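Q: Entry one of two.
A:
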Amino acid sequence: MEKLELVFMPSIGISHLVSSIEFAKRITERDSRVWVTVLMMSPLQPTKDLNLVYSHSKIRFVDLPQVDSPSYDCRKTPGTNMCAFVENHSSHVKHALTQLASNSATGLVLVLDLFCLSMIDVANELGIPSYLFLTTGTFFLGAMLYLVPHDESTGTVFELSCPELTIPSFTNPVPSRVLPDSFLDKAGGYAAFAKLGKRFKEVKGIVVNSFSDLEAFGLSSVSDGENPPVYPVGPILKLNSGSDPIEKDPIISWLDEQPPSSVVFLCFGSMGSLSAPQVREIACGLEQSGYRPGDESKIVTAEKIKEVIRRAMEDDGGVRERMKEMRGKSRKAVMDGGSSFNSCGRLIEDMINNYQRCHVSDTS
Protein backbone atom coordinates (compact mmCIF):
# COMPACT_ATOMS: atom_id res chain seq x y z
CA MET A 1 0.00 0.00 0.00
CA GLU A 2 1.55 3.26 -1.17
CA LYS A 3 -0.82 5.66 0.53
CA LEU A 4 -3.21 5.74 3.50
CA GLU A 5 -6.13 8.09 2.94
CA LEU A 6 -7.93 9.15 6.12
CA VAL A 7 -11.41 10.46 5.40
CA PHE A 8 -12.45 12.80 8.19
CA MET A 9 -16.11 13.59 8.78
CA PRO A 10 -16.45 16.35 11.38
CA SER A 11 -19.79 17.55 12.68
CA ILE A 12 -20.97 21.06 11.87
CA GLY A 13 -19.76 22.65 15.13
CA ILE A 14 -16.80 24.93 14.37
CA SER A 15 -14.90 23.72 17.44
CA HIS A 16 -15.15 20.12 16.18
CA LEU A 17 -14.03 21.19 12.72
CA VAL A 18 -10.97 23.08 13.97
CA SER A 19 -9.90 20.18 16.21
CA SER A 20 -10.32 17.73 13.33
CA ILE A 21 -8.17 19.83 11.02
CA GLU A 22 -5.46 20.31 13.64
CA PHE A 23 -5.38 16.54 14.21
CA ALA A 24 -5.28 15.97 10.44
CA LYS A 25 -2.25 18.26 10.17
CA ARG A 26 -0.48 16.40 12.96
CA ILE A 27 -1.10 12.90 11.64
CA THR A 28 -0.06 13.78 8.06
CA GLU A 29 3.19 15.23 9.39
CA ARG A 30 3.75 12.08 11.45
CA ASP A 31 3.90 9.68 8.48
CA SER A 32 4.63 10.39 4.81
CA ARG A 33 2.10 7.73 3.73
CA VAL A 34 -0.84 9.52 5.35
CA TRP A 35 -3.11 11.91 3.43
CA VAL A 36 -6.42 13.39 4.55
CA THR A 37 -9.71 14.22 2.87
CA VAL A 38 -12.25 16.15 4.94
CA LEU A 39 -15.91 15.68 4.00
CA MET A 40 -17.75 18.92 4.63
CA MET A 41 -21.45 19.14 5.38
CA SER A 42 -23.26 22.42 4.79
CA PRO A 43 -23.40 24.83 6.66
CA LEU A 44 -19.69 24.36 7.46
CA GLN A 45 -17.24 26.91 6.10
CA PRO A 46 -17.00 26.69 2.27
CA THR A 47 -14.08 24.57 1.15
CA LYS A 48 -12.64 27.38 -0.99
CA ASP A 49 -12.10 29.39 2.20
CA LEU A 50 -10.72 26.44 4.16
CA ASN A 51 -8.27 25.54 1.40
CA LEU A 52 -7.06 29.14 1.61
CA VAL A 53 -6.71 29.20 5.40
CA TYR A 54 -5.39 25.65 5.83
CA SER A 55 -3.04 25.52 2.88
CA HIS A 56 -1.62 22.03 3.24
CA SER A 57 -0.40 19.81 0.44
CA LYS A 58 -1.73 16.62 2.07
CA ILE A 59 -5.16 17.84 3.24
CA ARG A 60 -8.08 18.57 0.96
CA PHE A 61 -11.69 19.53 1.61
CA VAL A 62 -14.65 18.10 -0.29
CA ASP A 63 -18.14 19.59 -0.11
CA LEU A 64 -20.92 17.04 0.24
CA PRO A 65 -24.10 17.91 -1.66
CA GLN A 66 -26.56 19.91 0.39
CA VAL A 67 -29.45 17.93 1.86
CA ASP A 68 -32.85 18.88 3.16
CA SER A 69 -32.46 19.47 6.87
CA PRO A 70 -34.93 17.65 9.10
CA SER A 71 -37.34 20.02 10.79
CA TYR A 72 -35.56 21.54 13.76
CA ASP A 73 -37.22 20.72 17.07
CA CYS A 74 -36.31 23.39 19.64
CA ARG A 75 -37.53 21.05 22.38
CA LYS A 76 -34.65 18.68 21.64
CA THR A 77 -30.96 19.16 22.37
CA PRO A 78 -28.70 20.39 19.54
CA GLY A 79 -26.96 17.00 19.44
CA THR A 80 -30.24 15.20 18.80
CA ASN A 81 -31.04 17.43 15.83
CA MET A 82 -27.48 17.15 14.55
CA CYS A 83 -27.57 13.35 14.48
CA ALA A 84 -30.72 13.47 12.34
CA PHE A 85 -29.06 16.00 10.03
CA VAL A 86 -25.94 13.85 9.63
CA GLU A 87 -27.93 10.70 8.81
CA ASN A 88 -29.43 12.46 5.79
CA HIS A 89 -25.94 12.53 4.23
CA SER A 90 -25.52 8.73 4.08
CA SER A 91 -25.92 8.36 0.32
CA HIS A 92 -23.52 11.23 -0.40
CA VAL A 93 -20.91 9.86 1.99
CA LYS A 94 -21.19 6.46 0.34
CA HIS A 95 -20.68 8.02 -3.09
CA ALA A 96 -17.62 9.99 -1.92
CA LEU A 97 -16.04 6.94 -0.28
CA THR A 98 -16.71 4.78 -3.33
CA GLN A 99 -14.90 7.28 -5.54
CA LEU A 100 -11.93 7.46 -3.16
CA ALA A 101 -11.77 3.67 -2.89
CA SER A 102 -11.41 3.30 -6.66
CA ASN A 103 -7.65 3.87 -6.34
CA SER A 104 -6.27 0.41 -5.59
CA ALA A 105 -2.95 1.83 -4.37
CA THR A 106 -4.67 3.73 -1.58
CA GLY A 107 -5.83 2.36 1.75
CA LEU A 108 -8.97 4.03 3.06
CA VAL A 109 -9.98 4.68 6.68
CA LEU A 110 -12.97 6.67 7.93
CA VAL A 111 -12.43 8.97 10.95
CA LEU A 112 -15.76 9.99 12.45
CA ASP A 113 -16.85 12.73 14.79
CA LEU A 114 -19.07 11.77 17.74
CA PHE A 115 -22.25 12.95 16.01
CA CYS A 116 -21.37 11.16 12.75
CA LEU A 117 -21.26 7.60 14.09
CA SER A 118 -24.25 6.59 11.96
CA MET A 119 -21.75 6.51 9.06
CA ILE A 120 -20.27 3.32 10.55
CA ASP A 121 -22.98 1.49 8.59
CA VAL A 122 -21.77 3.04 5.33
CA ALA A 123 -18.16 2.14 6.13
CA ASN A 124 -19.07 -1.45 6.98
CA GLU A 125 -21.01 -1.81 3.74
CA LEU A 126 -17.94 -0.70 1.77
CA GLY A 127 -15.44 -2.69 3.84
CA ILE A 128 -13.74 0.42 5.25
CA PRO A 129 -12.54 0.46 8.89
CA SER A 130 -13.89 3.34 10.96
CA TYR A 131 -12.41 5.18 13.93
CA LEU A 132 -13.91 7.65 16.38
CA PHE A 133 -12.19 10.98 16.98
CA LEU A 134 -13.29 12.65 20.23
CA THR A 135 -12.39 16.31 20.57
CA THR A 136 -12.52 15.77 24.35
CA GLY A 137 -10.37 13.85 26.81
CA THR A 138 -11.08 10.61 28.64
CA PHE A 139 -13.53 12.08 31.17
CA PHE A 140 -16.21 12.32 28.50
CA LEU A 141 -15.25 8.97 26.98
CA GLY A 142 -15.62 7.30 30.38
CA ALA A 143 -19.00 8.95 30.90
CA MET A 144 -20.23 7.68 27.53
CA LEU A 145 -19.02 4.16 28.28
CA TYR A 146 -20.79 4.35 31.66
CA LEU A 147 -24.00 5.57 30.02
CA VAL A 148 -24.48 2.40 27.96
CA PRO A 149 -24.75 -0.19 30.79
CA HIS A 150 -26.78 2.31 32.81
CA ASP A 151 -29.28 2.59 29.97
CA GLU A 152 -29.37 -1.17 29.39
CA SER A 153 -30.03 -1.89 33.07
CA THR A 154 -32.41 0.96 33.93
CA GLY A 155 -33.52 2.69 30.72
CA THR A 156 -34.00 5.88 32.73
CA VAL A 157 -32.60 9.37 32.42
CA PHE A 158 -30.12 10.48 35.08
CA GLU A 159 -31.65 12.69 37.76
CA LEU A 160 -30.00 15.39 39.84
CA SER A 161 -31.13 13.42 42.88
CA CYS A 162 -29.12 10.35 41.81
CA PRO A 163 -26.51 9.16 44.33
CA GLU A 164 -22.90 9.78 43.42
CA LEU A 165 -21.82 7.83 40.35
CA THR A 166 -18.73 5.65 39.96
CA ILE A 167 -17.67 6.49 36.40
CA PRO A 168 -14.57 4.66 35.07
CA SER A 169 -12.54 7.72 34.04
CA PHE A 170 -13.16 9.62 37.29
CA THR A 171 -10.90 8.89 40.24
CA ASN A 172 -13.68 9.49 42.77
CA PRO A 173 -17.49 9.12 42.67
CA VAL A 174 -19.14 12.23 41.22
CA PRO A 175 -22.62 13.78 41.49
CA SER A 176 -24.88 13.61 38.44
CA ARG A 177 -24.78 17.40 38.06
CA VAL A 178 -21.27 17.16 36.55
CA LEU A 179 -22.58 15.03 33.67
CA PRO A 180 -23.26 16.59 30.26
CA ASP A 181 -26.69 18.23 30.12
CA SER A 182 -27.87 15.69 27.55
CA PHE A 183 -27.49 12.88 30.09
CA LEU A 184 -30.26 14.50 32.14
CA ASP A 185 -32.42 15.51 29.19
CA LYS A 186 -35.81 13.81 28.94
CA ALA A 187 -36.67 15.41 25.59
CA GLY A 188 -34.49 13.13 23.49
CA GLY A 189 -30.97 14.12 24.52
CA TYR A 190 -30.44 11.15 26.84
CA ALA A 191 -31.79 8.68 24.27
CA ALA A 192 -29.61 10.18 21.51
CA PHE A 193 -26.42 9.93 23.55
CA ALA A 194 -27.24 6.41 24.73
CA LYS A 195 -27.63 5.43 21.08
CA LEU A 196 -24.28 7.03 20.22
CA GLY A 197 -22.56 5.35 23.16
CA LYS A 198 -23.69 1.92 22.01
CA ARG A 199 -21.81 2.46 18.74
CA PHE A 200 -18.47 3.16 20.39
CA LYS A 201 -17.61 -0.55 20.45
CA GLU A 202 -18.20 -0.84 16.70
CA VAL A 203 -15.20 1.30 15.74
CA LYS A 204 -11.67 -0.06 15.40
CA GLY A 205 -10.19 2.56 17.71
CA ILE A 206 -10.97 5.73 19.66
CA VAL A 207 -8.77 8.82 19.41
CA VAL A 208 -8.90 11.28 22.33
CA ASN A 209 -7.59 14.80 22.71
CA SER A 210 -5.45 14.10 25.76
CA PHE A 211 -2.05 12.78 26.79
CA SER A 212 -0.91 10.16 29.26
CA ASP A 213 0.59 12.48 31.89
CA LEU A 214 -2.61 14.50 32.07
CA GLU A 215 -5.11 11.64 32.36
CA ALA A 216 -3.14 8.56 33.37
CA PHE A 217 -5.97 7.17 35.50
CA GLY A 218 -8.64 7.91 32.90
CA LEU A 219 -6.68 6.30 30.07
CA SER A 220 -6.01 3.22 32.16
CA SER A 221 -9.67 2.87 33.13
CA VAL A 222 -10.99 2.97 29.55
CA SER A 223 -8.24 0.67 28.23
CA ASP A 224 -9.59 -2.45 29.90
CA GLY A 225 -9.61 -4.75 26.87
CA GLU A 226 -13.41 -4.62 26.61
CA ASN A 227 -13.38 -1.41 24.57
CA PRO A 228 -11.67 -0.54 21.28
CA PRO A 229 -8.07 0.62 21.76
CA VAL A 230 -7.77 4.24 22.89
CA TYR A 231 -5.14 6.52 21.36
CA PRO A 232 -4.29 9.77 23.19
CA VAL A 233 -2.82 12.16 20.60
CA GLY A 234 -3.18 15.50 22.39
CA PRO A 235 -3.06 18.16 23.32
CA ILE A 236 -4.64 19.28 20.05
CA LEU A 237 -4.98 23.05 20.25
CA LYS A 238 -5.25 26.02 17.94
CA LEU A 239 -4.29 28.90 20.18
CA ASN A 240 -3.41 31.45 17.50
CA SER A 241 -5.74 32.10 14.61
CA GLY A 242 -3.18 34.27 12.82
CA SER A 243 -4.27 36.28 9.80
CA ASP A 244 -7.66 35.09 8.69
CA PRO A 245 -8.35 35.68 5.00
CA ILE A 246 -11.90 34.37 5.27
CA GLU A 247 -14.41 37.04 4.32
CA LYS A 248 -16.20 38.35 7.38
CA ASP A 249 -19.82 37.56 7.97
CA PRO A 250 -22.03 40.67 7.59
CA ILE A 251 -22.95 40.63 11.28
CA ILE A 252 -19.25 40.78 12.25
CA SER A 253 -18.73 43.73 9.90
CA TRP A 254 -21.74 45.44 11.47
CA LEU A 255 -20.33 44.90 14.96
CA ASP A 256 -16.99 46.39 13.90
CA GLU A 257 -18.78 49.55 12.76
CA GLN A 258 -20.52 50.20 16.09
CA PRO A 259 -19.15 52.75 18.59
CA PRO A 260 -16.94 51.28 21.35
CA SER A 261 -18.84 49.87 24.36
CA SER A 262 -22.21 50.29 22.63
CA VAL A 263 -23.09 46.63 22.00
CA VAL A 264 -23.66 43.76 24.44
CA PHE A 265 -22.43 40.57 22.76
CA LEU A 266 -23.74 37.25 24.09
CA CYS A 267 -22.09 34.06 22.85
CA PHE A 268 -23.30 30.55 23.69
CA GLY A 269 -20.81 28.46 21.74
CA SER A 270 -21.14 26.91 18.31
CA MET A 271 -24.17 24.82 19.32
CA GLY A 272 -25.87 27.27 21.67
CA SER A 273 -28.69 29.58 20.73
CA LEU A 274 -31.59 31.55 22.14
CA SER A 275 -35.03 32.06 20.69
CA ALA A 276 -36.23 35.55 19.76
CA PRO A 277 -38.46 35.80 22.89
CA GLN A 278 -35.48 34.86 25.09
CA VAL A 279 -33.33 37.55 23.49
CA ARG A 280 -36.07 40.10 24.13
CA GLU A 281 -36.21 39.02 27.78
CA ILE A 282 -32.46 39.58 28.10
CA ALA A 283 -32.85 43.02 26.54
CA CYS A 284 -35.60 43.86 29.04
CA GLY A 285 -33.38 42.70 31.88
CA LEU A 286 -30.54 44.94 30.71
CA GLU A 287 -32.92 47.88 30.46
CA GLN A 288 -34.27 47.33 33.96
CA SER A 289 -30.78 46.92 35.41
CA GLY A 290 -30.08 50.55 34.64
CA TYR A 291 -26.80 49.67 32.94
CA ARG A 292 -25.70 51.94 30.12
CA PRO A 293 -22.78 51.41 27.73
CA GLY A 294 -19.68 53.07 29.11
CA ASP A 295 -20.80 52.78 32.74
CA GLU A 296 -17.86 50.81 34.10
CA SER A 297 -18.99 51.09 37.70
CA LYS A 298 -21.38 48.16 37.27
CA ILE A 299 -19.21 45.71 35.37
CA VAL A 300 -16.20 43.65 36.34
CA THR A 301 -13.23 44.61 34.22
CA ALA A 302 -10.66 42.25 32.77
CA GLU A 303 -8.04 43.84 35.02
CA LYS A 304 -10.05 42.97 38.13
CA ILE A 305 -10.48 39.38 36.97
CA LYS A 306 -6.74 39.06 36.34
CA GLU A 307 -6.02 40.45 39.80
CA VAL A 308 -8.29 37.89 41.49
CA ILE A 309 -6.69 35.04 39.54
CA ARG A 310 -3.21 36.32 40.38
CA ARG A 311 -4.03 36.44 44.08
CA ALA A 312 -5.50 32.94 43.99
CA MET A 313 -2.38 31.61 42.31
CA GLU A 314 -0.14 33.33 44.84
CA ASP A 315 -2.15 31.85 47.71
CA ASP A 316 -1.52 28.35 46.39
CA GLY A 317 1.93 28.15 44.89
CA GLY A 318 1.52 24.39 44.53
CA VAL A 319 -1.19 24.85 41.91
CA ARG A 320 1.03 27.17 39.92
CA GLU A 321 3.92 24.73 40.05
CA ARG A 322 1.72 21.83 38.93
CA MET A 323 0.40 23.91 36.04
CA LYS A 324 3.93 24.82 35.00
CA GLU A 325 4.98 21.18 35.21
CA MET A 326 1.98 20.00 33.17
CA ARG A 327 2.62 22.68 30.55
CA GLY A 328 6.08 21.25 30.03
CA LYS A 329 4.77 17.69 29.88
CA SER A 330 2.14 18.66 27.29
CA ARG A 331 4.85 20.03 25.00
CA LYS A 332 6.99 16.92 25.41
CA ALA A 333 4.00 14.65 24.69
CA VAL A 334 3.73 15.81 21.07
CA MET A 335 7.46 16.00 20.38
CA ASP A 336 9.42 13.22 18.70
CA GLY A 337 9.52 10.34 21.18
CA GLY A 338 6.76 11.79 23.38
CA SER A 339 3.75 9.77 24.54
CA SER A 340 1.26 11.29 22.09
CA PHE A 341 3.80 11.20 19.26
CA ASN A 342 4.29 7.48 19.81
CA SER A 343 0.55 6.91 20.25
CA CYS A 344 -0.07 8.59 16.90
CA GLY A 345 2.43 6.22 15.29
CA ARG A 346 0.68 3.20 16.80
CA LEU A 347 -2.64 4.55 15.56
CA ILE A 348 -1.35 4.78 11.99
CA GLU A 349 -0.03 1.21 12.08
CA ASP A 350 -3.33 0.00 13.52
CA MET A 351 -5.23 1.77 10.74
CA ILE A 352 -3.05 0.17 8.09
CA ASN A 353 -3.45 -3.29 9.64
CA ASN A 354 -7.23 -2.95 9.93
CA TYR A 355 -7.52 -1.76 6.34
CA GLN A 356 -5.44 -4.71 5.13
CA ARG A 357 -7.60 -7.14 7.11
CA CYS A 358 -10.76 -5.71 5.55
CA HIS A 359 -9.17 -5.77 2.11
CA VAL A 360 -8.03 -9.38 2.45
CA SER A 361 -11.47 -10.48 3.65
CA ASP A 362 -13.07 -8.72 0.68
CA THR A 363 -10.81 -10.41 -1.88
CA SER A 364 -10.85 -13.89 -0.36
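Q: Entry two of two.
A:
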Amino acid sequence: MILALAGLAAALQSAAPAEPPPYDHLAPKEMRKVIEACGFARVWVGRDKREILLVRVEDSSASDEQLICAAKAIDTTFYTHEFSPELAPRFAPIRAAVARPRQLAEARARFAKEPERGPPPERLPGESSLAVAKRIEAFCGAVAEGALVQSGDHIMLSGEWMARRFSTVDAMIVNAGTMGCLMQASVIADLQLSGPVED
Protein backbone atom coordinates (compact mmCIF):
# COMPACT_ATOMS: atom_id res chain seq x y z
CA MET A 1 0.00 0.00 0.00
CA ILE A 2 2.79 2.45 0.93
CA LEU A 3 4.75 1.73 -2.25
CA ALA A 4 1.58 1.94 -4.35
CA LEU A 5 0.66 5.26 -2.77
CA ALA A 6 4.16 6.64 -3.32
CA GLY A 7 3.97 5.60 -6.96
CA LEU A 8 0.57 7.22 -7.32
CA ALA A 9 1.80 10.46 -5.78
CA ALA A 10 4.84 10.54 -8.09
CA ALA A 11 2.75 9.86 -11.17
CA LEU A 12 0.19 12.50 -10.28
CA GLN A 13 2.86 15.04 -9.42
CA SER A 14 4.54 14.58 -12.79
CA ALA A 15 1.18 15.21 -14.43
CA ALA A 16 0.24 18.29 -12.40
CA PRO A 17 -1.92 20.61 -14.53
CA ALA A 18 -0.59 24.01 -15.55
CA GLU A 19 -4.04 25.47 -14.88
CA PRO A 20 -6.61 24.46 -12.26
CA PRO A 21 -9.06 21.94 -13.74
CA PRO A 22 -12.74 22.92 -13.99
CA TYR A 23 -15.17 21.57 -11.42
CA ASP A 24 -17.98 19.20 -12.36
CA HIS A 25 -21.52 20.03 -11.24
CA LEU A 26 -22.99 16.54 -11.03
CA ALA A 27 -26.46 15.85 -9.68
CA PRO A 28 -26.62 13.20 -6.94
CA LYS A 29 -27.97 10.51 -9.29
CA GLU A 30 -25.17 11.15 -11.76
CA MET A 31 -22.56 11.15 -9.02
CA ARG A 32 -23.84 7.87 -7.63
CA LYS A 33 -23.51 6.25 -11.07
CA VAL A 34 -19.92 7.51 -11.32
CA ILE A 35 -18.96 6.04 -7.94
CA GLU A 36 -20.77 2.77 -8.66
CA ALA A 37 -18.84 2.56 -11.94
CA CYS A 38 -15.68 2.45 -9.83
CA GLY A 39 -16.89 -0.89 -8.48
CA PHE A 40 -18.73 0.09 -5.29
CA ALA A 41 -22.11 -1.45 -4.47
CA ARG A 42 -23.28 0.31 -1.31
CA VAL A 43 -23.35 3.97 -2.31
CA TRP A 44 -25.57 6.84 -1.15
CA VAL A 45 -25.28 10.34 -2.61
CA GLY A 46 -27.28 13.37 -1.53
CA ARG A 47 -27.42 16.19 0.99
CA ASP A 48 -26.75 15.46 4.65
CA LYS A 49 -28.49 17.12 7.61
CA ARG A 50 -26.30 20.19 7.13
CA GLU A 51 -27.35 20.39 3.46
CA ILE A 52 -23.80 19.49 2.38
CA LEU A 53 -23.42 17.35 -0.74
CA LEU A 54 -22.11 13.97 0.40
CA VAL A 55 -20.90 10.73 -1.14
CA ARG A 56 -21.27 7.88 1.36
CA VAL A 57 -19.66 4.53 0.57
CA GLU A 58 -20.49 1.65 2.91
CA ASP A 59 -18.60 -1.16 1.16
CA SER A 60 -16.22 -2.88 3.58
CA SER A 61 -13.60 -3.87 1.00
CA ALA A 62 -12.15 -2.40 -2.18
CA SER A 63 -8.99 -2.50 -4.25
CA ASP A 64 -6.57 0.41 -4.44
CA GLU A 65 -7.72 0.92 -8.02
CA GLN A 66 -11.33 1.33 -6.89
CA LEU A 67 -10.33 3.86 -4.23
CA ILE A 68 -8.21 5.81 -6.72
CA CYS A 69 -11.15 5.84 -9.14
CA ALA A 70 -13.46 7.23 -6.44
CA ALA A 71 -10.90 9.81 -5.34
CA LYS A 72 -10.51 11.08 -8.91
CA ALA A 73 -14.29 11.18 -9.36
CA ILE A 74 -14.81 13.22 -6.20
CA ASP A 75 -11.81 15.53 -6.58
CA THR A 76 -13.19 18.13 -8.99
CA THR A 77 -16.71 18.20 -7.57
CA PHE A 78 -18.33 19.97 -4.63
CA TYR A 79 -19.05 16.68 -2.86
CA THR A 80 -17.52 15.74 0.45
CA HIS A 81 -17.17 12.06 1.29
CA GLU A 82 -17.74 9.50 4.00
CA PHE A 83 -16.27 6.02 3.61
CA SER A 84 -16.83 2.97 5.78
CA PRO A 85 -14.54 2.47 8.81
CA GLU A 86 -12.82 -0.33 6.91
CA LEU A 87 -12.00 1.86 3.89
CA ALA A 88 -11.61 5.35 5.35
CA PRO A 89 -8.00 4.88 6.59
CA ARG A 90 -6.94 3.70 3.13
CA PHE A 91 -8.99 6.25 1.22
CA ALA A 92 -7.69 9.33 3.08
CA PRO A 93 -4.06 9.21 1.83
CA ILE A 94 -5.20 8.26 -1.68
CA ARG A 95 -7.63 11.18 -1.68
CA ALA A 96 -4.83 13.54 -0.58
CA ALA A 97 -2.45 12.26 -3.27
CA VAL A 98 -5.09 12.66 -5.98
CA ALA A 99 -6.05 16.16 -4.79
CA ARG A 100 -2.54 17.57 -4.47
CA PRO A 101 -1.86 18.36 -8.18
CA ARG A 102 -5.15 20.26 -8.41
CA GLN A 103 -4.50 22.06 -5.12
CA LEU A 104 -1.03 23.06 -6.33
CA ALA A 105 -2.43 24.38 -9.61
CA GLU A 106 -5.10 26.37 -7.76
CA ALA A 107 -2.58 27.80 -5.29
CA ARG A 108 -0.11 28.78 -7.99
CA ALA A 109 -2.88 30.40 -10.05
CA ARG A 110 -3.99 32.40 -7.01
CA PHE A 111 -0.52 33.72 -6.19
CA ALA A 112 0.24 34.46 -9.85
CA LYS A 113 -2.52 37.08 -9.55
CA GLU A 114 -0.81 38.58 -6.48
CA PRO A 115 2.76 39.22 -7.69
CA GLU A 116 3.22 41.91 -5.05
CA ARG A 117 3.51 39.14 -2.44
CA GLY A 118 6.53 37.63 -4.14
CA PRO A 119 7.01 33.87 -4.50
CA PRO A 120 5.27 31.75 -1.86
CA PRO A 121 7.52 29.84 0.56
CA GLU A 122 8.64 26.35 -0.31
CA ARG A 123 9.98 23.95 2.30
CA LEU A 124 13.76 23.95 2.47
CA PRO A 125 15.77 20.74 2.94
CA GLY A 126 15.75 19.84 6.63
CA GLU A 127 13.42 22.71 7.54
CA SER A 128 11.04 22.01 10.42
CA SER A 129 7.29 22.30 9.99
CA LEU A 130 7.15 25.12 12.54
CA ALA A 131 9.86 27.08 10.71
CA VAL A 132 8.06 26.87 7.37
CA ALA A 133 4.76 27.72 9.13
CA LYS A 134 6.26 30.95 10.42
CA ARG A 135 7.54 31.81 6.93
CA ILE A 136 4.02 31.23 5.59
CA GLU A 137 2.60 33.58 8.23
CA ALA A 138 5.10 36.27 7.23
CA PHE A 139 4.27 35.75 3.54
CA CYS A 140 0.53 36.15 4.20
CA GLY A 141 0.94 39.43 6.09
CA ALA A 142 0.61 40.94 9.54
CA VAL A 143 -2.94 39.64 10.04
CA ALA A 144 -1.63 36.07 9.72
CA GLU A 145 0.81 36.44 12.62
CA GLY A 146 0.11 33.80 15.25
CA ALA A 147 -2.28 31.84 13.02
CA LEU A 148 -0.24 28.63 12.95
CA VAL A 149 0.87 26.85 16.11
CA GLN A 150 2.53 23.55 16.88
CA SER A 151 0.77 20.88 18.92
CA GLY A 152 2.89 17.78 19.30
CA ASP A 153 4.04 16.79 15.84
CA HIS A 154 1.28 18.74 14.10
CA ILE A 155 0.88 22.30 12.84
CA MET A 156 -2.60 23.61 13.53
CA LEU A 157 -4.68 26.72 13.16
CA SER A 158 -4.67 28.61 16.43
CA GLY A 159 -8.07 28.64 18.13
CA GLU A 160 -7.23 31.98 19.75
CA TRP A 161 -6.31 33.48 16.38
CA MET A 162 -9.50 32.12 14.80
CA ALA A 163 -11.64 33.56 17.62
CA ARG A 164 -9.95 36.94 17.29
CA ARG A 165 -10.01 37.19 13.51
CA PHE A 166 -13.33 35.49 12.70
CA SER A 167 -15.60 36.55 15.56
CA THR A 168 -18.17 38.34 13.38
CA VAL A 169 -19.49 38.06 9.85
CA ASP A 170 -17.73 41.29 8.91
CA ALA A 171 -14.45 39.96 10.32
CA MET A 172 -14.87 36.74 8.35
CA ILE A 173 -15.30 38.71 5.14
CA VAL A 174 -12.32 40.97 5.85
CA ASN A 175 -9.99 38.11 6.81
CA ALA A 176 -11.10 35.50 4.28
CA GLY A 177 -8.21 36.42 1.99
CA THR A 178 -5.69 35.84 4.76
CA MET A 179 -7.16 32.44 5.53
CA GLY A 180 -7.05 31.52 1.85
CA CYS A 181 -3.43 32.63 1.68
CA LEU A 182 -2.51 30.45 4.67
CA MET A 183 -4.27 27.42 3.22
CA GLN A 184 -2.85 27.70 -0.28
CA ALA A 185 0.65 28.68 0.78
CA SER A 186 0.63 25.59 3.00
CA VAL A 187 -0.20 23.47 -0.05
CA ILE A 188 2.79 24.82 -1.96
CA ALA A 189 5.07 24.28 1.04
CA ASP A 190 3.66 20.75 1.51
CA LEU A 191 2.67 21.63 5.08
CA GLN A 192 -0.19 19.56 6.45
CA LEU A 193 -2.51 21.67 8.61
CA SER A 194 -4.92 20.49 11.29
CA GLY A 195 -7.12 22.42 13.60
CA PRO A 196 -8.14 24.69 14.93
CA VAL A 197 -6.65 23.98 18.35
CA GLU A 198 -7.32 25.90 21.55
CA ASP A 199 -4.17 27.58 22.83
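A: Comment on entry two: The first strand starts at residue 43 and ends at 47. The chain has a mean pLDDT of 89.
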